[in-house]
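Quick one:
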Amino acid sequence: MNKAVKTGLILTFGFITGVSLTITQGVLAEKPESKTQLSLPLAQLQNFTNIYAKIKADYVEQVDDKTLLTHAIRGMLSGLDPHSSYLDPEQYQELRIGTTGQFGGLGIQVGMEDGFVKVIAPIDDTPAFRAGMEAGDLIIRLDDKPVKGMTLDGAVKLMRGEPGSDIVLTVVRAGKDKPFKVTITRDIIKVKSVKNRMLEPDFGYVRISNFQSKTGSHLLDAIKKLSKENKGKLKGLILDLRNNPGGVLHAAAEVSDLFLHKGKIVYTEGRIENSYMEFNAKPGDVLDGAPLIVLINGGSASASEIVAGALQDHQRGIIVGTKSFGKGSVQTIQELPSGGAVKMTTARYYTPKGRSIQAEGIEPDIKLERVKITKLDEPNVGSVKEADLSGHLVNPTNGDDENANTGKKQSSKDNKKTEETKPLSSTDYQLYEALNLLKGLSIFSRK
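Output:
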């Protein structure tokens, strides 16, 4: 009897580990190891069957076998780490849609911390972003339901809903004395992963909000567009990865490759031999060596850390901002015959110099906190300049005093007009300082 049970269990587990797997996020798919025999902890399995039987017999309500086994699978995976989970067919389909750039919800990347939902990063131009959610926020209630005790999947299900419907989040934020409520209207999330604009002549800005399957090609198009708008090659570029929660691994490699001529970009290592992967750069730098600055912060995770780490190790870009999130693990999406999937951590990834980012993050080359500054008013005293002195010499290029005064008046008018528009230093101080650094690098490189 015992021998028959043992044999049956070995066959069952052998089937589970031998399932054909599919890659959906550019990560490595595990293959069965035929030579490895799985030894089963029979005492623990007996304990499991005893508890299973007690629930079936004594629980206050009748529970079907499918529900119990699904709960057991979810618990087995979620207990491993915050990123491993079981996806039913509906959740798996949503995940696949999410990697292409359109899905429903609030537009927020979340994880679990101390039993609460933690915001990794809000996604640009989504309801959560517009409502003011920030990386690091802890969500303790969803409408009137406490989050404590929920699974992450359960919390995410509650945050989903019909577009146009509202949900009230109770949020705890560092620096705030007490929890506060945020009302967010659900919507269909259409994520444009790459945005670009010129900051000043010759200096471009590109923001990647998350890494999708086509982010690499979209970034290349954005840089070409900036060069065309500039009517010539850029003298420098700022790559903004702040609050970028990550995404598709191969997209991170493609983005890094755009700026690197050669060398390793990232590699992964796990417990099994087949978990090793390596991405290497191909010749060609889209900026032709022009200075590059990468902005990161605590909301920069996973794929964005791969890019920052690769460019930092190759000394191709200067990393500016605050320490990144520290997610340095690879999740393999393993499709199941049922139509669902297992998302399981199978490897850690490493920067070209062999640094593991897991729970460590990327330290910026130049640390720059997010701050808000205001312009100080000039003291209300008459400041005297050379041009105010009696009998001062006139600059020949300025013409006579009347023309010079006319120019001065025009300059004051221009200054007043400029002051009506908020300067970059007050709207995004980190970006303002990055631009100043980029200008300095450009001047130095020309010399």
